[in-house]
UniProtKB/TrEMBL annotation:
Xref: Pfam families: MarR_2
Organism: Microcella daejeonensis
InterPro entries attached to this UniProt entry: HTH_MarR-typ, WH-like_DNA-bd_sf, WH_DNA-bd_sf
Upper taxonomic lineage: Bacteria, Bacillati, Actinomycetota, Actinomycetes, Micrococcales
Gene3D superfamilies found in the cross-reference section: Winged helix-like DNA-binding domain superfamily/Winged helix DNA-binding domain (1.10.10.10)
The HTH marR-type domain, residue ranges: 10-57
Domain of life: Bacteria
Protein name: MarR family transcriptional regulator
Single Gene Ontology MF annotation: DNA-binding transcription factor activity
Length: 92
C-alpha cells in the first residue's frame, strides 16, 4: 500500500512554522520530511497567498502566520488558517 497522509506538505509546513516561527528552513524541512528546496518552494507559495510573512532578523528569517487568512480550497474557505492551526496543534 502506498504511503499517504490526510494533510499536504503545505499544511504540514504551515503547522511547523506556527510552532516554531524562528526555525531555519532546513529545520522546517526535516520536521516535515521534505527537502530544503521543497520547503523553500512551499514557503514561497504560503507567502504569495498571504498566510505567511517572512521578516528578516539579521541573517535569519522570522515567520509571521496570518491566522485570519481563509483556507484556499472553496469547500474550506469559510475557515481560517488559525482555525486549522488550533484544530491540529496545542498552540492556542
Amino acid at each position: 500500500m502506498a504511503a499517504w497522509t490526510f494533510l499536504t506538505h503545505h499544511a504540514h509546513l504551515l503547522l511547523e512554522v506556527a510552532k516554531n516561527p524562528d526555525a531555519l528552513v532546513q529545520e522546517l524541512a526535516d520536521a516535515v520530511g521534505i527537502s530544503t528546496r521543497a520547503a523553500v518552494s512551499i514557503l514561497n507559495d504560503l507567502e504569495a497567498y498571504g498566510c505567511v510573512e517572512r521578516e528578516r532578523r539579521g541573517r535569519r528569517n522570522h515567520y509571521v502566520v496570518h491566522r485570519s487568512a481563509a483556507l484556499r480550497h472553496p469547500t474550506n474557505a469559510a475557515h481560517t488558517v488559525g482555525e486549522l492551526i488550533d484544530a491540529l496543534t496545542d498552540l492556542r
